Amino acid sequence: MPIGEFGGAPAPPGQAGPILAAPMYWFYEMSHAALNPSRAFADAAKIYFKSPINPLSYTTFGKSVAAACELFERSTRRYGQPEWAIDATVVGGERVPVHVNAVWQRPFCRLLHFERIFERPPRRPQPRVLLVAPMSGHYPTLLRGTVEAFLPNHDVYITEWVDARMVPLAEGRFDLDDYIDYIISILHVLRGEVHVIGVCQPSVPVLAAVARMEADADPYVPQSMVLMGGPIDTRANPTVVNRLAEQRGIDWFRRNVITKVPFPHPGFMRDVYPGFLQLNGFMTMNLDRHIEAHKDLFMHLVRADGDSAQKHREFYDEYLAVMDLAAEFYLQTVDSVFVRHALPKGEFTHRGVRVDPAQIRRVALMTVEGENDDISGVGQTEAAQFFRTTALSRAGRGARSPPAPNRRAPAGSAPWIAPCR
C-alpha cells in the first residue's frame, strides 16, 4: 500500500476528526442505498436505448443516452471481488486445465493454489512459487497477469487477503505481527520447498518473517526471496508519499481515516480503514487521467467501439474493487515502516523480539526496483541487501528495471497502499 495516497483522504478541520470519522462509513452506506433506485432506472434506460428494436438505438442521441446511463451506473456501483478467470495454461505446448483451490485458511487470509491438471506430468518437478500479494486495498487479482506468466513453468500459490468488513469481530484483531505469523505458517505448510515473492507492501513482513525463521533455525525457510518495489527503507530517496506519512504522523491517520464497519456487514463494529476512502486516495492521485479515461469510454460507446470500451470495463472493474483493511494492521504498518523507519534502524520487532535481517544466511535474496517508481523510491528496496552483508557473497543480488512509466498507485490513502503492478 504505497503511502502516496495519504494525501487523498479527506481531512476534517480542527479537532473534528473523530466526530466525523466515526459515522463516515454509515453515511457512505446510506448514500449508496439512496442511489439504488436511480441506478436501477439508469440501467433500464440503457437497455431501452440499446435495444435493436428501438429506432433511437441507431441514432447518435440514443447512443449518447445509453452511454451516459452506463457511465452513471458504473460510477455509482459497488464493485465486488473480481474473479481470477484462469481456467487453463499452456505447458510444454499443451493446454492444461487449472483449478484454483484454497489449501490453507485463516480469518484474514486464504492460500490459493493454482493446480494444473496434467495428463502427463512434466519429467522434472517444476519450481514452486509463493506470491505474497499486497494487503493494500485492492484484491490479489491485480496480480492475475503475474500468475498467468508463472503458470507454464511453475507451481503457483498466492495469498488472498480477506476484506476486513467480512470478518466478524469475534475473530479478533489483525495487525502486522499477525501478518508475519501468517507468512511463517504458510511457509510451514509449503515445507520450505518454495521461492517467495513479496510484491510491494509485503516486502517488509516477508523479510521480517524469513529473518525470524532464520534466527530460530527453522528448517522450512524458503529457498529464495524476491522483494519487488517494497518500502524497506523509506528514508532512501523519499517520495511524496513517504514525506506525507512523516509529516502527518500516525495520530492524523488514526483520527481521520479509521472508522467502524456498519451493520449489516459481518464485521460490524470492527475498526477499519475503509475501501471507499482508499479509492478516494487512488483516484485523486491521478484525477485528470481518470476523468479523461471516462470521457474516452463515453466516446467509445457512442462510436460503438466495443473493443476499447471493453478494455476500459475490464481495467476499472478491477481498479474500483477495493477492500477494507483492519485498523490495527494499517496503523502499525504506517507507524513502523513510514514514520519510525523501524526496520532499517534495527528497532523492528515481532511479538516483542527484535527482527535482525542479518540472520538471513540460507535464503537467496533478490531485490527489484523500478527506476521511475513514484511510490517506493530508488534504493528503498535495495536496502534489504545491506541488512545481510554477511550473506551477500552467497546469494544476494539486486536488480533495477530500466526506465518505465511511473507505477500507478492503486491502493488507498496511505503508505504502501497503492497499485502494485
Topology record:
Layout: H1 17-21, H2 24-34, H3 36-50, H4 60-76, E1 88-91, E2 94-106, E3 109-116, E4 128-132, H5 144-150, E5 155-161, H6 176-189, E6 195-199, H7 203-215, E7 224-228, H8 240-256, E8 259-260, E9 271-273, H9 275-285, H10 287-302, H11 306-319, E10 325-326, H12 327-339, E11 349-350, E12 353-354, E13 364-370, H13 383-386, H14 389-392, E14 397-401
Parallel strand pairs: 4-5, 4-6, 6-7, 7-13, 13-14
Antiparallel strand pairs: 1-2, 2-3, 3-5, 8-9, 9-10, 11-12
Helix pairs in contact: 3-4, 4-10, 6-7, 6-12, 8-12, 10-11
Can you give me a brief rundown of this structure?
The protein has 14 helices and 14 strands.
Descriptive labels:
421 residues; alpha/beta; Rossmann fold; 9-stranded mixed sheet; 14 helices; 17% strand; globular; disordered N terminus
Distance between the termini: 11 Å
Structural class: alpha/beta
Cα-atom radius of gyration: 23 Å
The general outline is globular
Give the CATH level 1 class of one domain: Alpha Beta
What percent of residues adopt helix (DSSP H or I)? 25-40%
Number of helices: 14
> Would you list the SSEs in sequence order as H and E?
HHHHEEEEHEHEHEHEEHHHEHEEEHHE
| CATH architectural type of one domain | 3-Layer(aba) Sandwich
Mean pLDDT value: 84
**In this structure, how is the largest beta sheet organized?**
9 strands, mixed
The CATH superfamily of one domain is identified as Alpha/Beta hydrolase fold, catalytic domain
Q: Tally of extended strands? A: 14
> What ranges have pLDDT less than 50 throughout 5 or more consecutive residues?
1-19, 390-397, 400-421
